[in-house]
Amino acid sequence: MRRPTKRSSQVAEILMGNQAMERALALLAAGEVVAIPTETVYGLAGDATNGQAVARIFETKGRPHFNPLIAHVASMAMAETIAEFDPLSRRLAEAFWPGPLTLVLPHRAGSNIHPLVTAGLDTIALRMPRGFGSDLIAALGRPLAAPSANSSGKISGTTAEAVDADLGGRIKLVVDGGATQVGLESTIVKAEDGELRLLRPGGISAEEIEAVAGTKLLRNNDAGIEAPGMMLSHYAPGAAMRLNVSTLEPGEALLGFGPTRAAGAANAAAFLNLSETGDLREAASNLFSHMQALDRSGARTIAVEPVPYDGLGEAINDRLARAAAPRDS
C-alpha cells in the first residue's frame, strides 16, 4: 500500500466554519486539499477537476489509486453535467439529497472530472452534502472529490481534533464544524438494469431507500471495487478487533452496546458504550470516536458486543467487520 505523504515541518491551521471559507477557497484554487466537515464524517477535499489536487488526496491518505473517490456537488444542475441519471436514481436523489446517500451513475462523456477520481471506471460516485461542504462547492463552482479525512484504511474522523491528530502534519487547513451528526459514511447504491444494488451500507438505512425506490435493495455480489469503502480491510484501529463477544478476555478493551454487558466486562482495560439504550442512530454517531478512544487506551484488542443488523445496524456491522478484517503488513 502506498504510504501517506508527510510534511513533518507543517502544522495544520484549524479554523471554525464561519471563518474558513476564504482560506479554504484559496487553497482549493491552488490545487491543495482541505479537511472539511460534512454530515457523515470529515472529508479530505480537493478540486475534482484538478489532477494535481486529486493526486494530492491519494498521496496524503496513502490511498490505492484503484480505489475510486466520491465527487461531491452542490446542485442537481452540477450533478447532471457529470453523470447520466436514470429515473430511479433521480427519484432517490430528489428524496435524499442533500444528505448521506451516494449514487453510482454512468459518467457523462465530456465531463471535466479528472480520470483519477473514477479510477478508470465508466461510472462515477456522486453525493450532495449539507452544510459547509455544500456552501464551499457552490462558492468554488466546481465539484470536490472528498474521501474521509484519515489515513487510508484507518478510522474515519468525526471531529476536527481527530483529523488533526491523523493528518495535521500533511495538510494546511482543517475546517472545524464540530462533531459530525451521522458519524458514518454515506450509503452507496447503484441502479442498473432495473435493479438497485447496495454497494456500501451507511448513514441512510436500506429500509429507508427501499421505501422510496419501491423495490428491494440487492446486496453486493462481490463483483469487485465499484465504489469507495469496498476494500476488505478498512476503518481499522491500531488494536485488533474481536466481534460479537459474549465473554471478555483478560487485557481487552470493551466496546459495548445496550444495557447488557458481556461476561467479565468489569475487568475491561477500558470501556465505552455505543448506546446505553440500544439506539442505533446514537451508536452510529459514536462508532468511530469510541473506537479511536479505546484504541488510545493501549489495549491490544478491542472486543465488541453484538450490534443488531436491522436499520443502521447493517452499516455499523459493516464497518466493524472491515475494521476486524485481516490487514496488510
From TrEMBL:
| Enzyme Commission numbers on file | 2.7.7.87
InterPro entries of this UniProt entry? DHBP_synth_RibB-like_a/b_dom, Sua5-like_dom, Sua5/YwlC_C, Sua5_C, T(6)A37_SUA5, TC-AMP_synthase_SUA5
Occurrences of domain YrdC-like (ranges): 18-204
Role: Required for the formation of a threonylcarbamoyl group on adenosine at position 37 (t(6)A37) in tRNAs that read codons beginning with adenine.
Quick one: which residues bind ATP?
R63, N67, T123, S148, S156, R200, Y235
GO terms classed as biological process: regulation of translational fidelity; tRNA processing
Q: Which reaction does it catalyse?
A: L-threonine + hydrogencarbonate + ATP = L-threonylcarbamoyladenylate + diphosphate + H2O
Keywords, in A-Z order = ATP-binding, Cytoplasm, Nucleotide-binding, Nucleotidyltransferase, Transferase, tRNA processing
Name used for this protein in its record: Threonylcarbamoyl-AMP synthase
The residues the record assigns to binding L-threonine are T40, H72, R127, A146, S186
Keyword Cell inner membrane attached: no
Q: What class of enzyme is it?
A: transferase
Please indicate which superkingdom the organism of origin belongs to: Bacteria
Q: Where in the cell is it found?
A: Cytoplasm
